[in-house]
Amino acid sequence: MYSEATRVDTEELVPLHTDFDVRWRGYDQEQVRYWISQFEADLAVVTADRDAALSQRDDLAAELERTRAALSRLQARFDRVCRTPPSVDGLTDRLRRMVELAQDEAGEITARARTAAENQWAAAQEAAGQLRARHLTLLRELDHRRAELEREHRDLLARTRADVEALTTQAHAERAALDTQAARRRAAIERDFQRDLQSRRAAAERDIAELRATARAEADAMLSEARQAVQQLHHIRDDVLAQLRDAQALVAEALPLLAEDTDNAAEAPTLTGVPAPVSALPAPPDPDAGTATAA
Questions:
Q1: Angstrom distance (rounded) from CA 182 to CA 111
Q2: Residue ranges per domain, the chain?
Q3: Environment class of residue 251 by beta-carbon count within 10 Å: exposed (0-12), middle (13-18) or buried (19+)?
Q4: In the chain, % of residues over pLDDT 90
Q5: Is pLDDT of 1 > 50?
Q6: Residue ranges of region Disordered (predicted)?
Q7: What are φ and ψ of residue 89, in 5° steps?
Q8: pLDDT tens, 95-116?
Q9: CB-based burial of residue 134 (10 Å sphere; 0-12 exposed, 13-18 middle, 19+ buried)?
């Protein structure tokens, strides 16, 4: 008979828990491994129950065959007894009564045996039907559970792909934002650099202008001093030339007097250190030309 100990609660053979924690590269691997191990354990329990039900079905089928064989033997024996009933005509009343009682008892035994066989046959048929229905139910539940697992697996893959695509899109958006931010920072740095460069260039130009102004002022001062020195030299030259002209005039006036005092002017030695006539002296330099040369 079908044992209640082997009955399995069919409301939820394999508990499905697919709410895994999402990590950077998919679901949590430890939770997935634990869920798969639990699923395999539950599937092993269901498989063991199915094997036990199949074994019990085989045992019940063998017992049913044995019951059928015993019933067939009893039926054949009963038919053989019924086909050759003893004749009660030549028997005494006591023997006749005993035969009638034996026949009645045999009929009762046969009826009870037939009833028991029919009951056992009905019970065997019912147990076989229940076992067959249980087996079919388990198969349908396994197929349904397999379909649910496949559907949940597809849903899980779809969610994983969607999560990966969302993470990829988010990563692209973040990279674009970072690129934009980096471009803005680079532009700001370039603007600051250009501004700093312009300010430094302006400062350098101001320094150069100041240096040029200072150099020009110093050059003008040196040129003014040189011009003053040239003018002083011109004045000195003019004084020297004037003194030289005066000396030449004195020499020119003294020569006739010296010629009258000496008789032999031709034989007289030439005076050393006497300056040449004024006409033989070089002309004084032009002051304007000296100023232009100094400039």
A1: 102
A2: 10-192
A3: middle
A4: 5
A5: no
A6: 266-295
A7: -70, -40
A8: 667 777 777 777 787 777 778 7
A9: buried
Each residue's pLDDT tens digit, 199-234: 888 888 888 989 888 888 888 889 888 889 889 988
3-class DSSP assignment, residue 22:
strand
Q: Nearest Cα to 142, choosing from 8, 4, 5? A: 8
Q: Pick the closest to residue 27 from 14, 36, 40, 38 (CA basis).
A: 36
CB neighbour class for 90 (10 Å; exposed up to 12, middle 13-18, buried from 19): exposed
CA distances to 92, 96, 157, 165, 178 from 172, in Å: 116, 110, 22, 10, 10
Beta strands per DSSP E along 63-119:
none
Q: Is 26 left (phi over 0), alpha (psi -120 to 50) or beta?
A: left
